[in-house]
Each structure stands twice: as structure tokens, then as C-alpha cells.
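Last lecture ended with a question: if I hand you only a sequence, what can you say about the shape of the protein? Today we answer it with a concrete record. The protein is Major facilitator superfamily (MFS) profile domain-containing protein. Below, first the input exactly as provided, then the predicted structure, then a couple of comments.
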Amino acid sequence: MATTVAAAHSQVATNDDSQASSTERGSKPNVLTVSHGDDHIQLEKAATRPDIHDVSQAHPTLLRTTTSGTTGPPFSIFTSTQKKFIVFMASWAGFFSPVSANIYLPALNPLASSLNVSSSLINLTLTSYMVFQGLAPAFVGSLADNMGRRPAYTVCFIVYIAANVGLALQNSYAALMVLRCVQSSGSSATIAMASAVVADVSTPAERGSYMGFTLAGSLLGPAIGPVLGGVLAQFLGWRAIFWFLVILAVAFLTIFLVFFPETARSKVGNGSIPPEGWNMSLMNYLAIRRIRREQMSDDHTPANTETTESLPKSKKRFPNPLASLVLLLDKQVAIILLYNALLFCAFYDVTATIPSQFAKIFHFNDLQIGLCFIPFGVGSMLAALVNGQFLDRNFARWCRKLDIQIKKGRDMDLRNFPIERARLEIAMPAIYTTIALILVWGWLLEINGPLPALLVILFFTSFSMSIAFNVTSTLLVDFYPTKPATATAANNFVRCLLGAGATAAVLPMIEAMGRGWTFTFLSLVLLVTSPLVWLNFRYGMKWREERRMKEEMKARMSVVEDGGESMSGKVKLGGEKDADAQKREQPVVEGGAPELAAVMKGDHGNGRDGKKM
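The predicted structure:
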């Protein structure tokens, strides 16, 4: 079997050598066309012939591929069932950050009494949580893009579990404040990584549906968190809240470590490269051990190590928190993030006022207030389920309009595709519906409106807001498919910092202006700033192309300055590739090496003929 695996690699390399003949074509003497099956890559030859691999590693957006056929490797080798499991786990992970923020709300009064501090000081723990909720993903997002998703998730949940144990055992306000910050740091990056996981396994044509399911967890947290917190605080005490989070996190981490595959394309490509080290799940590890034992028993020789040796060795980089902040300098991204943050402020202002205002109007206890969040949760979940279908269908409609064929399982070059319009056409109605509903919400509170009416408005507000959030998150991944965790971390940074300020200001505003005028002011802010979205709708494609050209120019200049001496890959003018270039290939193993394919998919129960061993 060892010979079979080695032969498979050799055959793939040989086929690639014969297919990837590099010749200069047409009337452009400075353009080199590299063919790989039905894929074609055109590169301008610099005077110093920079190394393409170096460029692609530093600037992944520089190399653009236009697929002209249905052959060649698929975007992801994960099956539909595997993708659903991956997205479910990412959604579950994304549930922890918002639920930790909101499950805590019904325990504010018991905590203040237990620690002998004022309610104002306890409320500061909410603000500090949101501040770190915005800061931490800037570090972890960069880590996830450089080191892989599994190491980043593992570190986050170890920190999160330790913080919750400390919170359950602490007896001082200082410990509460510090540990809440640590808890936020451990959980907040999971939302950014959820978007990154979706970008790893889904094409633009199917991304809307997967993003919808992924964001369901993060949107469900604020809705059911207060319900869970109210029940636990009412019957078991406030410490039970943190023990509950410990149990839930340990259950997740156990399943994650055993089954969740590495999806980062910088580590496993389309899933066809076996992971190594931290990036390896227990199922991957057992499959590799089984194959090595079979190799030794069949060949009576030490296990062949060509499989792991053929992987490209990526450089280990310390997480760069500035990577996500740099994205804010781009006008297109800044506009999207600013308006999304304003919507997020309104989202948190609505939820933050429910406990205090419902207690004053209806004299509810903590459990009753928690139950009032159920319509909010139902609206968020429903939006997550249906909005993905809206996005994918509108994407398909634009493809038909532009006479573009969607090839299932194949990535698409979005350079000449109006992805901004395809996405924002779904967001626009939701945004203006949200503005109207927030206005109605405020004046219903002002007149101490009937509870059923308030709950209905709460349901539709959460539904429309969640659609807008989903569209924005999906669009960010479309903009930065090679570094989605970093892009989503930038989104988290802006919206959480603004949300922290809005949450701290909303109750003083209600005391000064009244409920009706406070939410009227919020509605006017959203209405006045809504042209920002229209600017992206109108000029987004132009801005995106300008950004791409700047990135290409920067990449070329940096490689030329570094003194690259040969065409990369290393792709040579005669059509030959050296051994290093062959190692960088990410072939789909569909028949040449079943043993390797089993490792890639984590299937350690099938043999060479697909039968049970």
C-alpha cells in the first residue's frame, strides 16, 4: 500500500507536468498563461520573474483563476453531510459568546447583593465584556488564518472553560470583573471563526445558506440566554449559570477534538491534504495510524512518509491584531462595517432595555422577563433559516441574468460579478423594516403598550435585524475569502465597541428623553446613515476592483524588491516544474490512492476497494 500511495503522488505530479505547460500566447509577449486542466491562470512576467508561490502566499488575491469547465479539483472534497456537520459545530461554537453575555443578565441583582456592590458597578461588567468581545477576535482571527481553525478553537475553549470555573468559584467584585474579561476573550472569536469555516468549505453560490445556519447560533444566544439565566438564577442560584456554561463548553470541546476536521485552506487546501499536529482530529490520527500499520504489514518495511513530507511548510507567524484593523482603512469595508455596527447598537439597545422597562411596566420577575426573550429568539432562528435561501436564490438569479453558469462545487471568480448588488438587494428591505419597527417599539413602550403587541414587534424586529446581519457577514466573506476570520474580526471589533457605548448610554437616554424619543432618535440615526449602504450598492464593484489592483501592484512591488529570480511555483517557461512545485499541488485523490483519500476524509473503516477491513 505504501507503494500505491507513492505511485499516486508520482502519477499526479506527472499529469500536472504534462498539463501545466507554460507557453506565451497571443499578442501579449509579457503575459504567461499557465494551464492546469480546464483552469487557466494569466500572469504578467516581471523583469525579475518573481516567484509566484511567494506572491500567492503573501497576497492570495493576486492569482485569479477562471474555470472554464467542470473538470479539475472541486472547491472542497467534503461531502454535503460533512459540510452540514462542520457548519453545525461552527454554529454551536458561535453560540457561546452571545449566550455568555446574555445569560448573565437575570443574575445582575443577585450578584450585586452577593458581592455587596451597587448595580452600576455590576453593569460595568457588561461593558467590559463587550469591549473584550471586540478586541479578542483581532488576535484570534489572525491566529486562525495563519495556524488553522482547530488550534484557534482549542485555545479559545480552554481559556473559556477555565474562566467559567473561576467565575463560579469567585467571591469578589475584582475577580468577577477580570474573569468576565477573560471569559469574553475566550468565547468572542468563535463568531469570526464560524464565518471563516464557511468560507473554507463553501463556494459563493452556496455560501448564503451555510452562513445563515452558522449565524443562527450567534443570533440564538441573545434570545435564549436570558431565559436560561432566569431559570438557573431563580432555582439554583447565580453560580449555576457558570457551571452550566462549563458543562456545555466541555461537551462541545470533546466532540470537537474527536470529530471536527481542519478546514483552513492554508493547511489542508480543499480538504485533500492530510492535516498535521494540532490540525489533526482524533479521527484523522486513528486513520493515519491504521494506514501506517497496514503499510508495514503489507510491505514489511517502515511506513512511507512521503504523504506528510509532500506538504508545504508554512511559516508560523505570531497573531497580528493590526491585520483586521487595516481592513478598516478600505472605504468599501469601512462603510459596510459602520452601518452594520449601527444596526448592532440598535439590536443591543432593544434587548438591554427589556429587563428594566418590562419590570417597570409589567412588574415581572427575572424568570418572566427571561421568557419575554423567546419571540426574539424565534425571529432570529427563522431569519437564519430562510435568509440563506434568499441569498443563494438571488445569487443564482444574477448568474442567469449575466449568463453565468454555476458549476456545483467549483469556486467562482467574482471580479466581474456584482456581488454587492446580489447580497444587498436582500438587506435593503430588511434595513428599512427594522427602522420602522424600532420606532414603533419605542412608542409602544412609551404608552405602556400591551404585552402581546410588544412581543410581536420584538419577533419581527429580530427577524429583520438578523437578515441584515447575515447579509453583511456573508458579504465580508465574499470580499476576503482567503482571510475570512480576520475580516469578521474587524466586523466584531467595530460593532462591539460601538455596541458597548450604546448599551451604556441607552438607559440614561431613556431617563432624559423618554422611551419614545430615545428609540425615535435611534431610528433617525439608522435612516440618515442608510445612504451608506446605497453607496456600496452603486459603487461597490468599482471599489472592489480598485482594491484588487492596489493589492496586485503592492504584491508585485514587494516581490520585485525582494529580488525574486525565477518564475514561481516554481513554474518554468518550458512548462517544467521542480520538485518543490509538485509538492505544493493539492490534488483530489479519487481513485489513485484510496488510502490517502480515507485519511483526508477521516474515514478509517474502509479499505482499498471501499470495503470494510
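Comments.
1. The first strand starts at residue 22 and ends at 24.
2. Residues 2-74+568-585 form one domain.
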